[in-house]
């Protein structure tokens, strides 16, 4: 789980953006003030966890691509609403030159009936900014008592978009067989290589060079799951573009059974 405290530059960014009070909304106009309070003696914000993007050091998107954000929110009082945004922090706060730049248009979801545990997804639309940098995807949630909490993950803007097309986390894989894996990678800078990395029950690395580089590639490969293998298997797919910027998806966790 990622950091839930709004400290440092993230906190300053949220204050400058006014995300706690002003965010784009889905449906009803939400610019009329903070969520209502229930009068209950509750001062703790919801537990917020961004599930996607994964938030690892090489999660990336090409410039101009939208990003799907999925977040899980839990609160004993009940979840009232969730806001999504994506920003970049530029400059040096020690020199007073720090600025917050919106990289993805903001969205907010309000629940008609509050729930104690929910998972919600929204596509964030990119702004016209074309600078290559690391942005912060921010999900802020309020409970029914009006308490906010947030989670953030980094996202490289200007790197390959990578997807594993035929597998999802939680699947069971039988030992003694071949595991087929299909990886798709896209980047207008041109994909130069696709790498599949397996750890856990099976350890393997498969590298597929792409020559000449292509804007979009789909790579099919297989992993041998030896007899006797058992337990969790983590799969990670990574791609590099012609500028040597890397993006990845995963790891997906599968379970190898006899």
Describe, in plain words, how this protein is organized in 3D.
The chain has one helix at residues 8-17, and strands at 47-52, 60-61, 67-90, 99-124, 133-143, 148-157, 161-164, 172-174, 178-200, 204-224, 231-241, 246-257. With 258 residues, it is mainly β. The strands form 2 sheets. Strands 1, 2, 3, 4, 5 and 6 form a 6-stranded mixed beta sheet that branches. Strands 7, 8, 9, 10, 11 and 12 form a 6-stranded mixed beta sheet that branches. The radius of gyration is 20 Å and the shape is flat. Mean pLDDT is 83; it is low at 3-7 and 19-39.
Number of helices: 1
Question: What's the gyration radius in Å?
Answer: 20 Å
Q: Work out the number of β strands.
A: 12
Unreliable stretches, pLDDT < 50, 5 or more residues?
Answer: 3-7, 19-39
Largest beta-sheet details: 6 strands, mixed
